[in-house]
Give the backbone structure.
Amino acid sequence: MTDATLSGMDNAAQRAGADKKALLAADGTPLKQKLARTTRRMKFNAFMLTLPLVLFLLVSFVFPIGEMLVRSVYNPTGSNVVPQFAKAIQDWDENEGIPSEELIEIFVKDLATAAKNREVGKTVGNLATRINYEIPGSRSLFTKTARKVRRLEEGPYKEALFEIDKKWENPNIWRTLKRVTRDYTLSFYLAATDRKFDPDGSIVRADELYQIYLPILWKTIWLSALITALCFIIAYPVSYLLATLPLRTSNLLMIMVLLPFWTSLLVRTSAWIAMLQKEGIINNILVYLGLIGNEHRIQMIYNATGTVIAMVHILLPFMILPLYSVMKTIPPTYMRAARSMGASGTYAFTKVYFPQTIPGIAAGTLLVFILAIGYYITPALVGGNDGLLISNLIAGHIQRSLNWSLAAALGTILLVVVLTLYWVYNRLVGVDNLKFG
Amino acid sequence: MKTLKLLASTAVGAALMVGASAPSFADGHAKELTIVSWGGAYTKSQVEAYHKPYIEKTGTKINSEDYNGGIAEIKAQVEAGNVSWDIVDVELSDAIRACDEGLLETIDHSTLPAGADGTPATEDFIKGTLYDCAVANIVWSTIFAYDSSKISDGPKTMADFFDLKKFPGKRGLRKGAKVNLEFALIADGVAAADVYKILATPEGVDRAFAKLDTIKSDVVWWEAGAQPPQLLADGEVTMTTAYNGRIFNAVAGEGKPFEIVWDGQVWDLDLWVIPKGAKNKDAALDFLKFSTATEQLAKQASWISYGPARKSSASLVGKYHNKDIDMGPQMPTDPSNLTNAVQNNFEFWADNADQLNERFNAWLAK
């Protein structure tokens, strides 16, 4: 028992002694106790009411994100496929060049066992794929060797291995094996930032021709910022009209904002394809009006322009609605008061009206930016080659190259970017000032 | 008690024997199969040559699904332990990789039916078409084609495909490094036999990308096999790479004026694989045996110009199913089409696909 609780009990005893007429409830227990019990029960009931939501968040949100974080650094392929060797090689000194006969014997025996294994995640193919990320082109070295060592009965194993393929004489293979057979690795984060491990373990930048993730990440941030800015420019006057027009007109306007919002995302994106493509409506009108020649139709889709146009349209309601909800609460009398005291229209707007809309602006920009930075389907459909965002690369690694660890690392980086922005935002504006409507 | 046991075991034994002799009726309940392939004219040829006769023979219900290749879906299904695809038509490099990673059921070659002429299956299948987890059905090829009604004196060589001065206009290419790099090297004057030797060097890869650079701004990228004939028909491109069967079917089936250029073709195999833990594994295996029999492979060749993987089917290949077109000369493996041809090197692509696709994507985004 701590001193604090002891003294607390002393206090209670003293008070009980001093004040014999403590209030009692109907059943004779002290009222204080009874009250505490009731509060506790109510709190428990309240918690039980939120329990479904908590469980839902755990299952659908916390768990998958945790799983992603783990997958980006934890890759036990080495100890799954060649367990004895993975342990043994960690004590090996990399400067030796080639491991000793004993270590190679462990490797060969592990590989021969693995060659018979058909369990997903524990086959030689899994290890070969993992190594191939580090040393491109070494995949077949492992699958081929595994096929041949099954027939190896006795040593010397080192020579037998060299006979199967001369590449085993390269110390870099063994150094990489030592690094790769550890369960935890940073190599996927390095790959996600266009870097890699040198065979000797130092971190170097990838060849410029292979750099893709950082440029696309910057492009994603830049395009998201642009989309957010455009949304703001378009949404501000619209929200102002929504908040100030007479009810009948503003209701009609509101329906025009909400109708596209309720329409399927795919339908809206496809509509933009119909509008913007080379044989599309806008190009046809321009050609018809004689503004451009038939040969010089403008490429407005399947590039970054198409991505920006379609995404601004799709994300616009997320800017309009928070702005509107804030503007609706600003009494028109404030502006009238400012004007009646001699402020010009611009002055009254910038000094009186605009500052009051900042919580709405903050909420809208934050919402649009965060949605934009992780957007997938629209850039995939209309982005062509230069309008692709980081999420499209993540999808590519999930669906095509099957490098899920790299996809997880990229996803984690994206998550960190969003959280950082949220933190910066919180410092600048304060989350309490958010008004989502 | 003893007699009861004896009876039961006899019944089980009998059931097993019946099962062994007539696998298609082994498990009494109505069967279903989900067969996944590449869609369009290709799936159509399989429906006509495999599915319809199989349904007639066994009464199995077949769900036909389309996909665009790759093993991601198989991997996802197997790792999640919820395999809804029973049998999948894949490219060779994908079959090898998926098998290496334990995603597929192994297939015992000795259980495959013998050829119509009695040759055992292991000898009847063309060399290099049987693998631990995969059985080839067809030989297909990536070629390039043009619309002969729009270009009178058409291109003849792979170099012409990359020649924007001689043949101005957009080009269609499959989005990805595979095959495009081979084409680029052949167009740059590399002999077909040396393509993979050169591509294995960093200079060779640079050379291939440099060649692709020369047409990059005029390329329309396609992903599904049904797209290229459509791109040609719409006039979106003047030439496009494509799977030879798709172009043939646009010509034979729809009367399109397309012309195939066989120079520099890269041919490959399509194979049946069964994802590990497939719900209807036995039925899938039965379908696999049925569809790769001599007669079925030959029948497929009357619907699309892909070469059968069995030697015994070759002599049965005749004319297009409803037109007087000899199918032999339309096949990638016809000697006249093989004068300057490359066989897709699955080992090279299993080794280098990750790295080269990364570079390809970086190149594309620039």
About this structure: The longest helix of chain B spans residues 2-21. The radius of gyration of chain B is 22 Å.
